[in-house]
Amino acid sequence: MSRKKAVKGKGSCSKSPKASPSSSGRSGKSLTAAASPSSGLVYPSRPSISNSGEFYDIAFKVMLVGDSGVGKTCLLVRFKDGAFLAGSFISTVGIDFRNKVMTIDAVKVKLQIWDTAGQERFRSVTHAYYRDAHALLLLYDVTNKASFDNIRAWLTEIHEYAQQNVVVMLLGNKVRQLEFGVPFMETSAKSGLNVELAFTAVAKELKHRTMKEPDQPKFELQQYVDKEMRAVGCCRS
Ligand SMILES: Nc1nc2c(ncn2[C@@H]2O[C@H](COP(=O)(O)OP(=O)(O)OP(=O)(O)O)[C@@H](O)[C@H]2O)c(=O)[nH]1
Ligand SMILES: [Mg+2]
User: What whole-number distance in Å separates Cα of residue 72 and Cα of residue 119?
Assistant: First the structure.
């Protein structure tokens, strides 16, 4: 299988407005070029020159959808650049994309990730891109009930505009928002998700408080939970 180089898109997390498909900027140009193959799936046959210079074997289009403010742009920036740009919220205008090449089972997989505007007024723009998407990440904000209540409406749109076999994943974002000033984690009594961990973490905290050794570092409950979740790939049942 021959390899192709990935072409860079751009994006930012609440930093600058995104280009709409009609814009003439760099993003707008990338968008036109990337949107053209109707199958969406790309099996490159020969290498080509690009900005990012990364080779890949196979490419997929992934779309981020969900209410405005749930954190789609931030999630993409975190995934692409490993950074969280906190600060004033600037809503995405239209649609934009960024590429990331990952190695999955020794295969270089390029994800072309489309960051859509959650605002209602851009819906007709984003609908046009659903058809080519191989996967949709549907986000809600765990601190915003309305964004969760709207999931059903988003799924209706997805069923209407996306391909039938599109991969859909629901993501509850902002789980580290500690606005109540207490450690936080998500659990599921039904699946068992994180249940063991929740009780273990509390037991550890209590034990450390009770049996405090003077030269031992302070036990940080949230840090422990984060570390354990990372160690098991986030989810334990
Ligand atoms: N605490 C916390 N804040 C977040 C998180 N993700 C995003 N935010 C904040 O939420 C706000 C909205 O984030 P965006 O990523 O711009 O939201 P969006 O879904 O792209 O919104 P639209 O572009 O309007 O559709 C910003 O102020 C971010 O800093 C998170 O995981 N935790
Ligand atoms: Mg955005």
Answer: 12
- Indicate the residue type of 8: K
Which residue's C-alpha comes closest to atom 27 of ligand 1? 89
Residue 14 Cβ < 6 Å to ligand 1: yes
> Can you give the residue ranges of every domain in the chain?
58-233
Residue-wise pLDDT for 182-202, tens only, equals: 788 888 787 788 889 999 999
**Whether the model pTM is above 0.80:** no
Residues 6+ apart with CB under 8 A from 109: 56, 57, 58, 59, 60, 101, 102, 103
Q: Is the CB of 74 under 6 A from ligand 1?
A: yes
Cα–Cα dist 42/51, whole Å: 18
- Please determine, looking at this structure, whether the domain spanning 58-233 carries the CATH number 3.40.50.80: no
Would the CB of 174 count as within 6 Å of ligand 1? yes
Residue closest by Cα to atom 15 of ligand 1 = 71
Q: Which atom of ligand 1 is nearest to the CA of 84?
A: 29
Tell me what the pLDDT averaged over the chain comes to. 78
> Considering only 21-30, 74-83, 142-151, 190-199, which range has the smallest mean pLDDT?
21-30
**Euclidean distance between CA atoms 79 and 151, whole angstroms:** 23
Query: pLDDT tens digit string along 61-77?
Result: 999 999 999 999 999 99
Angle between helices 221-231 and 195-210 (to 10 degrees): 140
- Say yes or no: ipTM exceeds 0.85: yes
Burial pattern 73-86, b for ≥16 Cβ within 10 A else e, equals bbbbbebbeeeeee
